[in-house]
């Protein structure tokens, strides 16, 4: 029987946050790319929380943007509230978070995809991988159509054999009732890919008109909005913002939940998949934190032109009648009307240890993957992986060196390294605590860290790169000037110090020494610094941080030097760990399983001790 056959460069399976970044990266790098989706109307859909960014996740979005990705630009166009989190703490943990207009976000991203050269959108379910002698050569659709390709990126999200569950109701669909992908898992297993079953969940959506906001605390956005994208004009994001609202569960809420735990699929055994530890359902919170008499609940608008409100903090898979009862105990929700029930969703994904740091499968050449399919959670983690997978698929087709970011230079590097070297028994979530060099990996300097890589692969323009170099020069020149500008004990200096509660000068001091005082900063000293040049806000910010935290930054840079030395010690692909006599049996098993590419990566594998690393170094002849 005759079937459609096409030849393309790259196939991207899935058009969620990972698939969009993968497809855009490949197409912008000049490769003929087709992105396949079960529904064109669900491109970049936000099936759960209506926001982008947050603690550590904001870092990922900034890094995606620095590399030439789209997520930051898209949320800048479609946000309805923006807030910088952790402002009372140091700059290492400052994280931007924006509420999105869900529909606008999806429509805007779809428009970008539809108008990108070399990119075609195809509504089609991919059912099979075509693999010959361990090399991917194409993909096959449920219709029988064959797409011969040079590389493919799997970004299936939560759609593979998806099942949505609440109470006794179980439907084999993807999020929001969309079609599940039911064929590809068998093809993956047939090609030796190890699959696992994970789950996530989402809370109910409430009709805004049925909420009593007078019983809740109003949550406002920042007075001055900071954009996500380094290319967004800051003035363009100073808009009228929507409010969010804070309320709390109480003992009555918890009593209803406890009395109905036997009806929860989580506790009845109906749900098989493992859920995310750091994003628990309200049932889990009540059971695991029994000492707490209340939990925060955030009411967040899903968009400007809808009455649907997201009940953040109360995801659940309890039966419908229990959901209504428990929500009605929450102050402000006594008469709440549910638009969409809360539910859990189970799906197939892979054990990510099967991947190289480039996100290519170790056993299937030219096949890459990104997003929740890799066992992670969250829009931002998905987009970051999708971008790297798309870039590396394109670089493979172009015959160029892969792009691998390490954990000393990016949160993306931490994310991917954790996925491919650690045992992940639950959906992985990014957190600032996972980044050991987080003072260097701030969201404010993502462009200074990563834009060079975006330029190298062709996603950052010459103009953008030249602007980055000018910024670097301005920062360095101003730091040197401030370090070498001295002030005395004049009355205007000491009056300024007294105003800010700072110790008066009894002798000369450099401006840099004053900036390092906890109560002072670069901007505060402007009036006693008449020769100060007029500099952009982002340059001033970098000058202040680099001077104020100079000692800590230098200390971490020394640690990074040691880290880099370990990463440079490569391990041959064909090494047989069983031949290394002095290695412990557990270490041999783990090293054979993960197949690390360098000593640094080997040292981060659970079950491989420092003594094992020493043995390995001697065996390989590394000094």
UniProtKB/TrEMBL annotation:
InterPro entries reported in the protein's UniProt record: FAD/NAD-bd_sf, GIDA_C_N, MnmG, MnmG-rel, MnmG-rel_CS, MnmG_C, MnmG_C_subdom, MnmG_C_subdom_sf
Major subcellular site: cytoplasm
Pfam families assigned to the protein according to its UniProt record, in alphabetical order: GIDA (PF01134), GIDA_C_1st (PF21680), SAM_GIDA_C (PF13932)
GO cellular component: cytosol
SMART domains registered for this protein in UniProt: GIDA_assoc_3 (SM01228)
Keyword tRNA processing: yes
Binding site for FAD: 14-19
Official protein name in the record: tRNA uridine 5-carboxymethylaminomethyl modification enzyme MnmG
Organism annotation: Fusicatenibacter saccharivorans
